[in-house]
């Protein structure tokens, strides 16, 4: 599998490709159906505006996130577009039998050849009770992740050695090639594994900013060339919000910060409105939490956001930036992505 299969653009470009991480965010006063319609419209616009790929994330038990079934949403977004890459960012592999994922993404790849990415994470993306319900098992062991990745690869490639218990099992459909596998992470575990396997790596800078550079250093130092890549390829997820003015961007970014605060308190809900976020009675400790959260979100007018994204890209050496934008309402989200695309001269 060549680098072009993974990235779609040649190395050595002056700027890293921009991509999108989509959670189908459900805002206060909205519905999951509206959130999914907004996600579909974003995919169409992102393709028009020149974004490289759009991934959907697997989360469970969160009223404000409608992307609990990545394969289903990927199929819908791919059918609504024609050229942008669509993938998972990611499938939380411990929640699923590898054969099921091989069949789902083999089907997606057969429907949309050359456009599907399979990003894999080792966290459950939910609480342990929900994870157990997904797996129908009393235990979910993230340390089994390397074995699960190996099984999934075996099913996708038909590469189990003779004598392996699954050697005679075929994941159908399976063509001459398969979707590229990415490993996702927010710490060093998946970074090292991605390097050792010679796979592309996506790091969740948007919620683990302090670990970004150590994890990328570990990925690059662990990297072994493979049939997939001859040198490391690192993507980082970045929270960013652009608006016409710095003041409006701050107003738009506050609901996402309040959502994170409520999640930290064990009260996940729909994304609040800017007015609700402004009126919330923050304690001093909560204000500090919000301040720290906002320090990891690139926000402001279009030039400010571009400058912030470029500083981060150069500091980390990331090959690609994947932007996630948690604001209230599809219109504000679309406007943010449009302004960023314009700031980069993509439209």
Molecular structure report:
Helices cover 44% and strands 14% of the residues. It is of the alpha/beta class. The chain has a single domain (3-343), classed as Luciferase-like domain (TIM Barrel, Alpha-Beta Barrel), CATH 3.20.20.30. Strand 1, helix 2 (32-49) and strand 2 (53-56) form a beta-alpha-beta unit. It starts with a helix and ends with a helix. The model is unreliable at 1-5 (pLDDT under 50).
State the name of the first-level CATH class. Answer: Alpha Beta
Q: Summarize model confidence as the mean pLDDT.
A: 92
Counting H and I runs of at least 4 residues, what is the number of helices?
13
| SS-derived structural category | alpha/beta
Cα end-to-end separation: 30 Å
CATH topology: TIM Barrel
- What low-confidence regions span 5 or more consecutive residues with pLDDT below 50? 1-5
What characterizes the major β-sheet? 8 strands, parallel, barrel
- State which percent range the strand residues make up: 5-15%
How many domains, as an integer?
Answer: 1
| CATH homology superfamily | Luciferase-like domain
Form type: globular
CATH architecture heading = Alpha-Beta Barrel
Q: Going across the biggest sheet, name each strand in turn.
A: 1-2-3-4-5-6-7-9
Précis, in short:
With 347 residues, the chain is an alpha/beta fold. It has helices spanning 3-7, 32-49, 70-79, 98-111, 128-135, 145-157, 188-197, 212-222, 246-264, 274-279, 284-294, 302-316, 330-343, and strands at 18-22, 53-56, 85-92, 116-121, 181-185, 201-203, 234-242, 298-300, 320-324. Strands 1-2-3-4-5-6-7-9 form an 8-stranded parallel β-barrel, surrounded by 9 helices.
């Amino acid at each position: 599998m060549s680098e072009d299969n993974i990235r779609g653009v040649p190395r050595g470009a002056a700027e890293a490709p921009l991509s999108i991480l989509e959670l189908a965010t459900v805002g206060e006063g909205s519905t999951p159906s509206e959130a999914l319609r907004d996600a579909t419209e974003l995919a169409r616009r992102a393709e028009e505006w020149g974004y490289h790929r759009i991934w959907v994330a697997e989360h469970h038990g969160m009223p404000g996130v409608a992307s609990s079934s990545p394969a289903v949403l990927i199929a819908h977004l791919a059918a609504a577009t024609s050229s942008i890459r669509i993938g998972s960012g990611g499938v939380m592999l411990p929640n699923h039998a590898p054969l099921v994922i091989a069949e789902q993404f083999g089907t997606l790849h057969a429907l949309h050849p050359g456009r599907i990415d399979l990003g894999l994470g080792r966290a459950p993306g939910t609480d342990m009770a929900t994870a157990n319900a997904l797996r129908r098992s009393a235990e979910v062991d993230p340390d089994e992740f390397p074995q699960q990745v190996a099984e999934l690869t075996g099913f996708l490639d038909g590469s189990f050695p003779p004598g392996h218990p699954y050697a005679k099992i075929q994941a159908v459909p399976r063509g001459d090639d398969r979707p590229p596998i990415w490993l996702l992470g927010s710490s060093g575990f998946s970074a090292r594994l991605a390097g050792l396997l010679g796979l592309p790596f996506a790091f969740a800078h948007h919620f683990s900013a302090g670990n970004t550079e150590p994890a990328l250093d570990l990925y690059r130092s662990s990297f072994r060339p493979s049939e997939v890549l001859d040198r490391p390829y690192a993507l980082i997820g970045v929270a960013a919000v652009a608006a016409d003015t710095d003041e409006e961007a701050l107003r738009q970014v506050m609901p996402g910060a309040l959502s994170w605060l409520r999640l930290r308190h064990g009260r996940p809900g729909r994304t609040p409105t800017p007015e609700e976020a402004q009126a919330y009675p923050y304690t001093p400790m909560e204000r500090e939490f919000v301040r720290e959260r906002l320090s990891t979100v690139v926000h402001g007018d279009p030039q400010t956001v571009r400058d912030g994204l470029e500083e981060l890209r150069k500091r980390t050496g990331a090959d690609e930036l994947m932007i996630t934008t948690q604001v209230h309402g599809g219109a504000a989200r679309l406007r943010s992505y449009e302004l960023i695309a314009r700031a980069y001269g993509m439209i």
